[in-house]
Each structure stands twice: as C-alpha cells, then as structure tokens.
Design goal:
Length: about 280
C-alpha cells in the first residue's frame, strides 16, 4: 500500500487529476442509491425544465435542474455513471479476453493460424468501428446486454495486434526455449511462460480503452440503438436534451461535460499506468 501511495505522490498533475475524478466516479456509481437525492425515474411535471441552481429561478432542490419530464438531472447523472462504468469495464474485459487469446495463438503458432487471425483483423479494420457496432446492435436489438456484447466483440482488435507483436518477440527468449527443451506442452508455455510477459501491456491498453468504449456506448445510445430510454445513461440524457438545446441547454451540457471529464480522466490514468510500467515513457509534469 505504501508503494502505491508513493507512486501516486510522485505522479504528474494530470495523473492525480485523473485518479481523483475516476475515484469520485467509482464511489458515485457504487453509492448511487445513497447519494442520489431522488429516484432515477421520479417524475414531477410541476418542476419540468427547472434550471440549475446557479441560473435565474434555479433552486437547491434540483442542483443541476430537471429535464422535460421533471426528473432530477443530478440523480440521473449519478445513476448514469453506474451504467457507463459497467459498460466500459465489462465490454473492455470481453474485448481483452478475446484479443489476448487470439493474439497469443497468432504469435505463438504462426502459419495458417496467424494468417487467418491477421485477415480477421484486416476485415475488422476495414469497417469503421461505430458503423460495425451500429449494424450489430441493429441486428440484435437495443439492450444493455447487447451493447456490452457488441462493444466487446468489436473491440478485440487492438489487444490482438499488441499481444501478437509481443509474443513474436517473447517466444524467442531463452526461458521459452528452455521450456520447449524440457518438453512442456504448448498450452503450458503459452499460459505459464508467455502470457505473464505480455498481459501487462494488454491491461494498460484495456484501461485506456475504457474511455473509448464509454464514448461509443454514448454514441450508440444517442443514435437510438444503445441503452433503452428508461435507463439513465449519459448518452440517453444527451439525446433526450437534444430537442431543448437552446431553451434548456443544461440537459445536454451537464452530461456532456461529465462524459468528457470521465473519458479524459481514464486516459490520464492509463498514461500513468503506462509510465509506471516503462519509466522511459514518463512525461514531464
């Protein structure tokens, strides 16, 4: 624990900012029922489109105002942070697992296996990520489970490319050749010898990719093919406020700022983890 605190203490200002925002985000997501002042879908038509507390006619009863149905924006923002984290983390894990396995197989065995997986990567890269995700969600239907599944399945390519490149180098190391000489099976060599040497890079890449996944979920939801409207997400909040952008701009501005800060902070944390792994990449504060 002391080592972790020392690393945080000597990190850059951007890394500290990112860590603070991410920690607040995680706490808000976990304690959403306790922190939220109202229910996620509590409707009060009498308070419809009430402005934030810092604007004229605003009230501390609704710090960030209310939406077109009278639902509290702060409450939905807190609950939306939970959905964003679930999507980002779970979809990231799905993509990481698929990508790491395919990258290990391609790099270790080579030959036709490498050719097939490399062509799969080429096909995936030939389509814009968001376009492919839109097609799959449209085919499967809009739901939280389907969005996580689609974003995970379409997000494995960076992991596979990174792991494959590292495996090509690691498998020529002496300890791998020694394992071959001792008669170890391919499975043991891959998962006991090679995987521990390449998994750090995949995890760091996965941390940085969470922000991209969350942004993709918000984009799909904004287009009407993501999370259903009855579930509070930042993408839903931005989409619902789109028709009121000139009369009630806070409906899109507040969740948009939250989305921006969240994604940037995750990238800051990912950069920090990368710097810890390779001090030569450490930036200047």
């Amino acid at each position: 624990m002391n080592d972790v605190w020392k690393m945080i203490k000597h990190s850059t200002r951007t890394a500290k900012f990112g860590l603070v925002v991410v920690v607040i985000w995680i706490v808000a997501a976990i304690l959403a029922p306790l922190l939220a002042p109202y229910g996620m879908n509590d409707i009060d038509v009498a308070q419809r489109l009430a402005p934030p507390c810092w604007m004229e006619n605003g009230s501390m009863d609704h710090i960030f105002g209310t939406d077109q149905l009278g639902r509290d924006v702060l409450t939905r923002l807190i609950y939306g942070s939970r959905i964003s984290l679930i999507v980002g983390i779970v979809a990231g894990i799905v993509g990481l697992v698929i990508g790491v396995i395919l990258g290990l197989l391609a790099g270790y065995f080579g030959g036709w296996i490498d050719v097939v997986i490399s062509r799969m990567i080429d096909v995936m890269l030939a389509f814009p990520f968001i376009f492919l995700a839109l097609l799959l969600v449209a085919a499967l239907g809009a739901s939280l489970t389907n969005v996580i599944l689609v974003l995970g399945i379409t997000g494995w390519v960076p992991y596979a490319r990174t792991v494959r490149a590292q495996v090509l180098s690691v498998k020529e190391k002496e300890f791998v050749k020694a394992a071959h000489s001792l008669g170890c099976s391919d499975g043991r060599i891959i998962f006991k010898q090679i995987l521990p040497s390449v998994i750090d890079s995949a995890i760091i890449l996965g941390t940085m990719d969470i922000g991209t996944i969350i942004l993709s979920e918000a984009s799909l939801t904004f287009l009407g093919l993501g999370i259903p409207p009855n579930i509070a997400t930042w993408g839903n909040m931005i989409a619902n406020g789109n028709d009121y952008i000139f009369s009630a701009g806070w409906l899109t501005m507040i969740p948009g700022i939250a989305l921006l800060l969240g994604c940037i902070s995750i990238n800051f944390v990912g950069d920090w983890l990368r710097d810890i792994r390779d001090p030569r990449l450490r930036g200047v504060d």
